[in-house]
Write a structure and sequence with these properties.
The chain is an alpha+beta fold. It has one domain. 32% of the residues lie in helices and 25% in strands. It is built from 2 helices and 3 strands. β2 and β3 form a beta hairpin. The longest helix has 17 residues. The protein is globular.
Length: 80
């Protein structure tokens, strides 16, 4: 089994990752890697990622913008 990430722009089209992607032996390895490089990916033009196992979607798309601290913006909207 190979775990990989699909790198996407906000519209779902494929993006060229700013960090060389890898294939991972486990889901945990893939998730640890994305946790280490998401900022570089975001700065390089990737808006969201989708985790795949042997070409099948496991979950996603997952926004990289949400990880950057955007939750503060949602708090104000909830209070209105």
């Amino acid at each position: 089994m190979a775990w990989t990430w699909r790198f996407e722009k906000a519209d779902g089209s494929q993006a060229e990752p700013a960090v060389q992607p890898e294939e991972f032996p486990t889901q945990s390895d893939a998730e640890s890697w994305i946790g280490e490089v998401w900022r570089e990916l975001l700065e390089g033009g990737t808006d969201q990622v989708t985790l795949q196992e042997d070409g099948s979607t496991v979950y996603g798309p997952m926004s990289l913008h949400d990880a950057s601290g955007a939750e503060g913006e949602d708090e104000g909207a909830a209070e209105e």
